């Protein structure tokens, strides 16, 4: 990556503790790292490692117990519910393992949804949604509903929905978890191609090492902590090398506000 690249996400000493009766479970434990604009970053680890919780914290879906997350220079923790929702609409896209499409809507209508929330005029948003469906290879499926499509096609609709508003950052939680290996590769190729073309930042969660290899940076999560960070050298055919996680610790800033908790939908 370019040394002068712009930092778009900073995670600083992030901690998430759940209370179950008298027991305290630390799902994310003092995690710090940075992500550069245009970078494809993977949060990689086994089931239960805390990687999906970390993604939810970054997206503002769950509250931090302590620490802070800075996206585009703004503290997620300082935003109230209304401002956080607006920030997501303007800057973030989401790809879910279970697709999260509305079964009563067509592919076109599902892709239009983020644009509806932006109060975009009907004619423009329909054109943008149709163009995006064509880009993901579903130009002939725009009037089909989710139950009339395969899993791979549904995830392509999900990708189109995530990218249609041209967000700077796309969060993807196990985006190929319900797909076979051939379709998984097609979906990952598509995500990578679209992100590179528009210089968008991808933050993906996976337990599959083959999918992690798509990333420029692989952050290994184990028991809620950053175990190690791999950054791929520039140039084709070169193997990734390991970099000490301490090298990615972000500078601390004071935080006084608490973010409003949102329901998990993915």
Give me the secondary-structure topology.
Elements: E1 7-20, E2 23-36, E3 40-44, H1 51-58, E4 66-71, E5 74-75, H2 81-91, E6 92-96, H3 107-117, H4 122-135, H5 151-163, E7 169-173, H6 181-198, E8 201-206, H7 209-212, E9 217-222, E10 225-231, E11 241-243
Describe it for me?
The chain has 266 residues and is of the alpha/beta class. 30% of the residues lie in helices and 27% in strands. It is built from 7 helices and 11 strands. It has helices at 51-58, 81-91, 107-117, 122-135, 151-163, 181-198, 209-212; strands at residues 7-20, 23-36, 40-44, 66-71, 74-75, 92-96, 169-173, 201-206, 217-222, 225-231, 241-243. A 7-stranded mixed beta sheet has the order 6-7-8-3-9-10-11. Helix 6 (181-198) links the parallel strand 7 and strand 8. The longest helix has 18 residues, at 181-198. Mean pLDDT is 87; it is low at 235-266.
Major sheet: arrangement of strands: 6-7-8-3-9-10-11
Major β-sheet profile? 7 strands, mixed
Strand content: 25-35%
Taking all Cα atoms into account, the compactness measure Rg is 18 Å
Mean pLDDT: 87
| Structural category | alpha/beta
Cα distance, first to last residue?
A: 30 Å
């Amino acid at each position: 990556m370019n040394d002068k690249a712009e930092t778009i996400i900073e995670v600083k000493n992030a901690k998430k503790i759940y209370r179950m009766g008298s027991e305290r479970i630390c799902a994310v434990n003092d995690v710090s790292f940075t992500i550069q604009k245009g970078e494809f970053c993977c949060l990689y680890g086994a089931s239960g490692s805390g990687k999906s919780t970390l993604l939810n914290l970054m997206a503002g879906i769950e509250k931090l117990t302590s620490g802070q997350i800075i996206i585009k220079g703004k503290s997620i923790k300082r935003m109230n519910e209304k401002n956080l929702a607006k920030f997501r609409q303007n800057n973030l896209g989401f790809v879910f393992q279970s697709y999260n499409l509305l079964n009563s809507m067509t592919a076109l209508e599902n892709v239009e949804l983020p644009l509806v929330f932006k109060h975009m005029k009907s004619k423009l948003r329909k054109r943008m949604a149709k163009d995006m469906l064509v880009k993901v290879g579903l130009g002939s499926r725009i009037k089909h509903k989710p139950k009339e499509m395969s899993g791979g096609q549904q995830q392509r609709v999900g990708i189109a929905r995530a990218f249609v508003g041209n967000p700077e950052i796309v969060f993807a939680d196990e985006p190929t978890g319900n797909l076979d290996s051939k379709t998984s590769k097609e979906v990952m190729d598509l995500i990578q191609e679209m992100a590179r073309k528009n210089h968008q930042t991808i933050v993906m969660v996976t337990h599959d090492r083959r999918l992690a290899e798509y990333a420029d940076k692989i952050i290994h999560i184990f028991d809620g902590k950053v175990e190690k960070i791999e950054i791929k050298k520039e140039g084709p055919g070169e193997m990734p090398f390991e970099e000490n996680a301490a090298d990615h610790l972000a500078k601390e800033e004071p935080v006084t506000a608490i973010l409003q908790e949102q329901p998990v939908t993915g």
